[in-house]
Amino acid sequence: MRIYDVAFYGIIFFLLGVLIASLGLNILIITAVAVLTAILFLLIGFLKNRPPSFWFAGLSLFIIIGSFYYFQYENFQLKNIKIPFNQKTEVFGLISSYPEKGASQKLIADLKEPYSGKIFIKTASYPTYAYGDLIRFEGVIKKPEPEPYANYLAKNGVFGTANFPKIELVAENYPAVSRAKIKSTLFKLKEKTVSVFQKTLPSEKAAFLSGITLGERAEFSKEFKEAMSNSGTTHLVALSGYNIMILAMAIANSLGYLFSRRPTFYLTLLAIIGFVLMTGAEASVVRAAIMGGILLLAKQIGRLYSFRNAIAVAAFLMVLSNPKILSFDIGFQLSFLALFGIVYLMPAVQKFFKISEEQGFLSWRENLLTTFSAQLAVAPLLIIYFGSFSPISLLTNVLILALVPITMTLGFFLGALGFLSYHLSLVFGWFVNLFLTYEIFIIKLFGNLNIFKINPISAPLAVVYYIILIAFVLYTYRLSKFFSN
After folding, report:
1. CA 148, 371, 209 angle in degrees (round to 5)?
2. How far is the C-alpha of 289 from the C-alpha of 403, rounded, in Å?
3. Beta strand 118-124 pairing with 134-140
């Protein structure tokens, strides 16, 4: 077996071990399963005289390593937690991430001595708090419930919740370290940019532009959120790998009309880096940018079959940093499934149905294939997590997606112009408003069509669905070509 195959399958078995451990199985049971798997591969190797089976026998032991790593990570997390649960207490905390604003504020606070650990705080929308603020609050801290919600918070190192405690601001921009100051500056830049949009555009359009450029959704109305959900366009304002990959493809396709492949690659990569910096370089956004960068790399080198290892290494590094994202981070799961859809499923669909490689006017054919393949790959997870999925979203995205990178570019330019001249930004905002008017019209038009929705499905049915999807890809490429380099 070639070295890159050894690396690939070793990573797969490691990730499998992490996944099994996250389900709550005992390490002894996991070890027994790994050993039995190794014995099974050895028997196949002896009976069928297949040398790769001996490699698989050895690599299957990486299941144990992955499980052990997960348990060690979890123990390390819990070891550093000292939170006074279920009692009225007064504690100090440092706001350690960008507050989510809207009808209420959602804060993540890192407790100060004599306590330690992160807690999730829900409080009134005013007064507002910012990243780096030191607060003193009085209230009851509880353990998160139910279990899925607790796992979701634990993924981010959060182990307690507090609803509407009494809060007092002690100090602004408290941390005196350079990294904290940089993040604080970036967040202020983001808020200033949102403020420019609000001053130069109607409220709904300013909110949508803030969403597609900076992932800020605080000013979205309930009706507009529902329209985006029904039309399948929520990903446009979600800071996830799924969102960034779609946008990266759209930006690359647009720039492809003006530049050759290499400049297009670097310019799009710079656009993603700028996007990350503008949103404060949060961990979730950085992970999403990595996914977008990998997709761009695949398009640049034009070798999709060798891209398998790049995906595996990216997943391995992310899980190594935080093993809980594999099971409890929806964005992580959607990112990799969307990547599978775009990198493997899209060429298979194009080849199977003999679709022309010409992109069409405003890249409509490319956008249709990209959207169709990505959504086909993530559909079961969207149904399981969010309760429904509308196939009509394919048409909505085709009608919008070609204009999104243009609108984003104009939005960033409008934000920069707002720092220089309010009057110039007001004039330029009228031009940006034309694009936003069309996009919001399409979202609302298809968002009101509450038909063609697929209701929730069971997990076993989702597994069958993915088996069929993988079989289709393998059939199209032929198994030997799919795993070759």
Report:
1. 80
2. 21
3. unpaired
For domain 88-171, give the fold: OB fold (Dihydrolipoamide Acetyltransferase, E2P) (2.40.50)
Helices 241-255 and 330-340: angle between axes, nearest 10 degrees = 40
CA 250 to CA 324: how far, in whole Å? 31
CB 59 within 8 A of CB 38: no
How many helices (H) and strands (E) the chain has is answered by 21, 6
Contacts of 160 (CB under 8 A, 6+ apart): 83, 85, 117, 118, 119, 120, 141, 142, 143, 144
Q: Per the structure block, which two tokens stand in for 68?
A: 């052990």
8 Å CB contact between 362 and 400:
no
Tens of pLDDT along 257-306?
788 877 888 888 887 777 776 676 666 677 667 766 776 776 666 554 45
Could you report the per-residue pLDDT of 6-25, keeping only the tens digit for each?
Answer: 888 899 999 999 999 998 88
Give which of 449, 67, 64 is closest to 233, Cα–Cα. 449
Q: Give yes or no for a contact between 208 and 370, defined as CB atoms under 8 angstroms apart.
A: no
Quick check: helix, strand or coil at residue 183?
Answer: helix
Paired strand residues for 89: 139
The answer to whether the CB of 449 falls within 8 A of the CB of 270 is no
Task: Cite the residue boundaries of each domain of the chain with CATH code 2.40.50.
Answer: 88-171
